[in-house]
Amino acid sequence: MSRPAVPGFFRHLLLLWGLRFDIGLNQGPGKSRLLAVGAFLASSAPGVFFGLFFFGLMRLGPVARSDVWPYFILNLLCFVTFSVWVTWPLLSAGVDDHSELSRYAAFPISPFRLLIASTVASLFEPRALVFYAPLTGAALGFASVNRLWAPWLAVVLYVLFALLCAAWSRVALYAVINVLREKRSAEIMGGGLLAFLVAASFIPPIDTSWLTAVGTEGVDALDMSLIINAAVALGRVPPGFFGDGLGQLAWFRPRVAMAEAVGLLFFAALGMGVAYALLMRFHRQAGRAGPQSKDSQDGNPFARTRTRFSTLVTREALDLWRNPRARLLASVPFILAILLKLLSGRDLFVFLLGASADTWLMGGLCIYGAVVIASTFSQNTFAYDGQGFAAFLAAPLNLAEVLHAKNRVQAAAALGMAVLVALFYRVYFGFGTWVDIACALAAVVGVLPILLAAGNFLSLYFPVKFHANLKRRDKVPLTASMLGIVAASIGCMPFGWTLKLAGKDGPTWQSAMMIALCAGLYLAIYRASLPLALRLLDRRREAILQAVTRE
Fold first, then answer.
1. HSE of 182 in the Cβ direction (CA atoms, 13 Å)?
2. At 96, is the pLDDT very low, low, confident or very high (cuts 50, 70, 90)?
3. Cα–Cα distance between 537 and 306 in angstroms, integer?
4. pLDDT (tens digit per residue) in 133-151
5. Exposed e or buried b per residue across 31-55, where buried means at least 16 C-beta atoms within 10 angstroms of its C-beta
6. CB 366 within 8 Å of CB 410
7. Which of 146, 222, 282, 520 has the highest Cβ tally under 10 A?
8. Which of 232, 244, 236, 242 is nearest to 265 (CA)?
9. Taking 50 as the threshold, does the pLDDT of residue 290 lie above it?
């Protein structure tokens, strides 16, 4: 009997896409494919509006007739798109996209081919469609008002730019998971954050005095040499090769455009090579057993717990503290705050929002820190501790106590995170009043009950397997992710509405009171939904166990 032929690259690509689609739909009895497809379309829908907006912007008379603005907008969008893609693994703690290598270990596919297939597949996820939409709309708008020498070369430039972003996003992703896999990942990330803070203090802030001029005299008051220099500088870095290449095609310089296409291909290939090296290093390290250490009685945190519930709370707190992803999430708001000051972002918000700027910024960072901590773990509350749920089922205890302990620890971690972010903002920026702090923390107290209530039900109906060693984990289904985003949006509504009512005059203590009252209403909703969640937990315990322990 002849040996079956090894599938080709495109067959492997289709198989990988099919696997990701099944994981995203969380296939199994009773799972709705229609709901998952609807969630995919809904999550990609914002990209349509972004694309149409920038398409219309590039066709706007003053922009289309300008010799500067189209190229500045294109190059700026190239830089922003690339930056978002590369930093997304950090901003979202997205350490789920590396699982294919171990999943396909027994299959006839080389790791490098699998890496390429996985990278290409990532370009067709909902987030990719949203991230690329502004640049796609701007490029199409530019091509509709400027005759290009060779439209096919513009398509080649676009494809190579997308591959460049995907490749270096993989570099960032695999660098993050390598750090998380290290035994002293907390010290490494803490030291990196401190080094970033010190380095940022030596970089002079961006001059934003032009905002005042624009506010009083309009856009004509801008010094166009600043825009020209910025457009040229953005076009000389690899992500800007696409925007500059479109400009070269409009100026009928095909050789320059081809050279920039070669540059995009080179840097994309370089990124894939670095990503492959980091990925192989991670899997070599993941296959090794770490040093074993014995816990002494003095170092045993359970030696001093007096009740069963306090023991459960201590266990959940330790699991959360030792979780590598939690450490990564804890650093993100502080990094965003440092970048915000480095780029003089607060001045822009003051220009747009007036006296409410610090409330919006502080509240936004606090809510973001709380949401990423609470939603990440509450929406998979029975699996983020590895095989912990199986141990709970075997132990002589009520599962209601387990869920109470998990919710309490997740809420405490998110609230503590928000307090630290608020204090850091006040010290680091030197702005923010007690009213701003009260509004920000009241908003966090309001969003947490909704996140926990939604997380309880999502954990019951969308449980996924989790591997605590980061070697492999299943992705949370897209439907669950979308429902989690809806819950977070509902929780943030009182904060947004209150600040909208306050306008540029800034919030008052009455504003903080309004947010706190809404937080009390949300807390009542959480308490009312908890008995139903506990009843469903008893009914679905076997289904959850099967989902979180399957191989």
1. 13
2. low
3. 26
4. 999 999 999 999 888 888 8
5. eeeeebeebbeebbeebeebbeebb
6. no
7. 282
8. 242
9. no
**How far is 306 from 311, CA to CA, in rounded Å?**
8
CA distances for 246 relative to 151, 156, 170, 249, 251, angstroms: 9, 11, 26, 5, 9
How would you write 284-343 as a 3-class SS string? HHHCCCCCCCCCCCCCCHHHHCCCHHHHHHHHHHHHHHHCHHHHHHHHHHHHHHHHHHHC
**What confidence tens digit (pLDDT) does each residue in 158-169 have?**
999 999 998 998
Token pair 């990609």 in the structure block, residue = 44
> Which residue type is seen at 428?
Y
Return the amino acid letter for 510: Q
Buried b (16+ CB within 10 A) or exposed e, 509-535: eebbebbbebbeebbeebeebbeebbe
* 54 closest CA partner among 67, 81, 82, 73: 73
Compute the distance between CA of residue 195 and CA of residue 191 in angstroms, rounded to an integer: 6
pLDDT at 540 exceeding the cut of 50: yes
Question: Whole-number mean pLDDT of the chain?
Answer: 79
Q: Any residues with CB less than 8 A from the CB of 341 and at least 6 apart, and which?
A: 200, 205, 428, 429
Overall pTM surpassing 0.85 (yes/no): no
Q: What is the pLDDT of residue 393?
A: 65
Give the angle 235-236-239 at the CA atoms, nearest 5°. Answer: 65
Of residues 365, 335, 333, the one with CA closest to residue 349: 365
Report CA torsion sign: 538, 540, 546, 549.
Answer: negative
378 within 8 A of 407, measured Cβ to Cβ: yes
